[in-house]
Automatic annotation (TrEMBL):
GO terms for molecular function: ATP binding; microtubule binding; microtubule motor activity. This is Kinesin-like protein. Its main location: other. Residues 4-130, 177-243, 298-329 form a coiled coil. Residues 715-724 have a biased composition (Basic residues). GO terms for cellular component: adherens junction; centrosome; cytoplasmic vesicle membrane; kinesin complex; microtubule. CDD domains: KISc_C_terminal. It comes from Bos mutus grunniens (Wild yak). It is a peripheral membrane protein. Keywords: ATP-binding, Cell junction, Coiled coil, Cytoplasm, Cytoplasmic vesicle, Cytoskeleton, Membrane, Microtubule, Motor protein, Nucleotide-binding, Phosphoprotein. The gene is KIFC3.
Amino acid sequence: THEVEHLKEKLISQAQEVSRLRSELGGTDLEKHRDLLMVENERLRQEMRRCEAELQELRAKPAAPCTGCEHSQESAQLRDRLSQLQLEVAENKGLLSELNLEVQQKTDRLAEVELRLKDCLAEKAQEEERLSRRLRDSHETIASLRAQSPPIKYVIKTVEVESSKTKQALSESQARNQHLQEQVAMQRQVLKEMEQQLQSSHQLTAQLRAQIAMYESELERAHGQMLEEMQSLEEDKNRAIEEAFARAQVEMKAVHENLAGVRTNLLTLQPALRTLTNDYNGLKRQVRGFPLLLQEALKSVKAEIGQAIEEVNSNNQELLRKYRRELQLRKKCHNELVRLKGNIRVIARVRPVTKEDGEGPEATNAVTFDPDDDSIIHLLHKGKPVSFELDKVFSSQASQQDVFQEVQALITSCIDGFNVCIFAYGQTGAGKTYTMEGTPENPGINQRALRLLFSEVQEKASDWEYTITVSAAEIYNEVLRDLLGQEPQEKLEIRLCPDGSGQLYVPGLTEFQVQSVEDINKVFEFGHTNRTTEFTNLNEHSSRSHALLIVTVRGVDCSTGLRTTGKLNLVDLAGSERVGKSGAEGSRLREAQHINKSLSALGDVIAALRSRQGHVPFRNSKLTYLLQDSLSGDSKTLMVVQVSPVEKNTSETLYSLKFAERVRSVELGPGSRRTELGSWSSQEHLEWESACQTPQPSARAHSAPGSGTTSRPGSIRRKLQPSA
């Protein structure tokens, strides 16, 4: 049964394949189509050769150019039509080759399918013959068993009249008879099953034959439909070819007529061509003399243009000189107005691109400068240029001395009794510490400021007596620490002076008197070793705290007794950073959070001062609380905003410059000079006399005005004492 079903499935698949191939194939019609295309192709080829020969004849004849002639346009159209016919011939050739290949492929596939169908029919015939043989063997077995049954029954009947002596033989015969009957029953059962299988096989065979007959009828019907369709397609093709041939004949006839007209026109145009040639020769002779006239005209025009350009350049130089003079005057007036208003002056410094910035598009320079105005800076952020106006902008080529020259006027006012604050702001790695501290070979604002103060004090030594004291502190994780103390980890607090002046001071902050550059270097070296710096992804030596250098200048006029006290606060703020960029974790993450919080508090203070609010939140952070004197209108304040020029830091640079513009608009009012007339307290007088008589650096605790002082241990004093 399974073999019959398998044969049935194979016959169905083969019938489907034959029907598909016969529907696709039309061998005889395709061959006729190919022959017709070959004949048409040959005819078109001959027609093309004839047209080419006629064109060669026309080209061989001398013809004068006739621009805009009606016949020349018709000739060009005929040439285009001829090229189109050639393209159609080439396409027909390609189509013919494709049809030949397709006919060959379909013929091979049809032969293969017919062979496979014959093999399947042969296998089916063999299977039917094998089943017939098995059926005949079953009939023969049944017949032989039927022939053996009657003698056995007869023996049974005869045995019944035998004597008792043969009972044992009878029982044995009965057993054998029973066994034979069981075998006959089994054979009958097998025969019955075989008959059922044979009957089902006959039914399947009849069904298969009916299906084969149905498939053959469908194949014949599909073949007939295919022939009809192919015939209709052939008729359509022949009709299209005849129409195309008729159109081609009409067009060729028109081409011949146009060519005849062109020949007659060419014959009539020859005299006109000779006339045009004579005119052309005359114009050619006239043109030969034209270059000389053109050169003379060009020389005169060039001379006039050069004179006009020189006049314009001289006028432009004069206007540029006047513009720059007016610009300097306007800037001078603006600075004076800012000074009178007490605005916070803001300067910007752009650090150079370094190897730590990497390479590629992210390390390109995104900052440009205005060549005519040194207070304008341009930033290219996300493809859009943004401009900012500050008080002064220093490019990456500016030196430490250039930056210091801009701030030294503020520093010298400290000697006259003014409070001065200079603080550096910007993202981490932007160069704030370099600008404020610098290197031993190229010091920054801090050392240069103290050197300037020493030189100014020496110039006024005949009339004034000054003492200069230095303190250094840092704000680390919102904790104020003494960088010059014996125990730098000791926490300090900010207090109001008990004299009712409203000034702030830090009890216990170490204060050293300096008298020479050597003293300055020792103080800076000692303070720098105690400052907290760590490595981050953005900066190899990132400052993790806000550093404050407090310089106090006390002076007395020897002739009038006028006493002045000036304070210079030099602040190196910790850099703002994005935790995702810096890669801060653990303690570095906590430090970054405190840094960003304090800088945010500084922004809140600036916003409150800018909008003239009644309450300014100075106490929201230790940083803003310590800078309250510098930001509350009793000080001259300058901010140095440090920016990075590379593309990957444009977001931080944009934020820093926007913050700088907001700071620049804050008006603190004019700074006041702190002077006193009258006698000092006895203790202060003794301290002043001892300082004047023994000019050596001493360590004192920073105390409130008028309060006593306490000495630090002698080990620190010996460490900071200048060498002999």
